[in-house]
Structure formats: C-alpha cells, structure tokens
Amino acid sequence: MKVVILNDAAEVAKYGAEIFVKQINKKPDSVLGLATGSTPVAMYQELIAANKEGRVSFRQVSSFNLDEYLGLPGDHPQSYRYFMNDKLFNHVDIEKFRTNVPPGDANNPIEACLEYERMIEKAGGIDVQLLGIGRNGHIGFNEPSSSLQSRTRVKTLTKETVEDNARFFEEGEFQPQLSITMGIGTILEAKKVVLLATGEGKADAVKQTVEGPLSAACPASALQFHQDVVVIIDEAAASKLDDPDFYKYIETENRRLEKHLGL
Fold this sequence. Notes:
35% of the residues lie in helices and 16% in strands. It is an alpha/beta fold. It has a single domain (2-261), classed as Rossmann fold, CATH 3.40.50.1360. The strands form two sheets. Strands 1-10-9-6-2-3-5 form a seven-stranded parallel β-sheet, sandwiched between helices. Strand 2 (31-34), helix 2 (38-52) and strand 3 form a beta-alpha-beta unit. Helix 1 packs across helix 2. The longest helix is centred in the N-terminal third of the chain and has 18 residues, at 9-26.
C-alpha cells in the first residue's frame, strides 16, 4: 500500500487527478470506477480542467459508480447519477451511454445487482477504482461488518452514515436508508485503487486502514490485500498515523527512483 501525504486537500485533488489522466492517456478506453461524496468533487474539477485544456479525453472511457441510494430515480437531485452528471459527466467529453451508476429505482434490486456485476465483467474489469472513506471506515456503502468478499448488493446504511449524509437532504425530505453498492470483493478486483481522504475527521479511519489489523470493523482495511493501492491524504487526515515522516520519506525515494528509471 502506497501512502502519499500532501499539504492540503487541493494537493490531494491534483495528485489524484493526475493518476487518472495518466491512465486514460495510456489506455484511452479505460474503465474507471468512480465515487461520490465531498472529497472526490475537487478531483473531478481537476479532471474537467484537464479535459478543457486538451490534456485528456474521456471520449472512449467507460465508468462504473460505486453505489446509489435505493429508492431514488436517476433524475432525483440527491441521487448519485444526478451528482455524477452535475459534478463531472456534463462537463467533459464522455459518452453518457458509457457511464454506469447502480439503478436506484430498479424494480428488482437483487437482479440489478447481479446485472451490474455482469456489466463490469463484460467491460473487462475496472482499471482504476476511486474511493473515498467514511469516518467509520466504510468504502462505497460497505459498512462495518460487511463481508470482505462481498459483491454488489443491497445494503442498509448505518445510523452514522445516515447522519453524515443528512446535510444533503432538506428537512422533511425523504432520505433513503438503503443503497445498492459494489461489494468489497468487487472493489478488490480493480487493477488499481486510489483512495482519497482529507481532514482530521478521517484520521482515525485512515489509521485503521493503513496501520490497523485487517478487520470487518474497518471495511477499508481490506485494501491491505490489494497489490496496487494508493492512499492520498492531507496532513490532517495523516495526523494519527504512527510515523507520518516514514511515509513521506518512502514517497520521496519512490519519486527519485521513478525519475531515475524515466517512469
């Protein structure tokens, strides 16, 4: 697991965006795994800028989002399909028919989950999966106690997650308690995983993910199993790591090696 500690959230967004830009330029028909939430938005803004500057094109890219609220149609302002259109897809040259978000209004959610898995497999698997992380260590809507081998499925949201997301809903507005989410096993099949975390509120979750034991109590700790994970965090999110300077040293040496090898 590679841990990159940067000064602030703006640097985290830029660093994360460059990973995606390099991936797409290397493989124009890349399959991206995308995430919602406040942390990825800044990275999407960087990708939009890169697209408008001509540094990257999304024309052949396909995407699969991590999750969606169950019970919300795609045109609902609080749906994750609406979020992705508003924050990224409407502003770059991606073909909308290549963008996939779990159907929150599916008549048969169980079958929809199975079909989502089939679609990812048919696309050749995900090249780079973007993740945020919840305060309780959830990735996607895989809450604590989720099976580390789980697949795309319907999940009940924890009280903590519902409370964290309540700020996005108006008082009295229907707030879903269920979701469709990629499973941890699905996420681990991505060829590369990029996790972004900023702010002191994520520090405990980051510590458990990077330095804690592998445990269903912190779903993100399953990323320790993956051979190519980059955890990109700011100083605040790194504040509870045992030795942040160690990770900074390793990153400096890695950059020196990459420069030497011309990578």
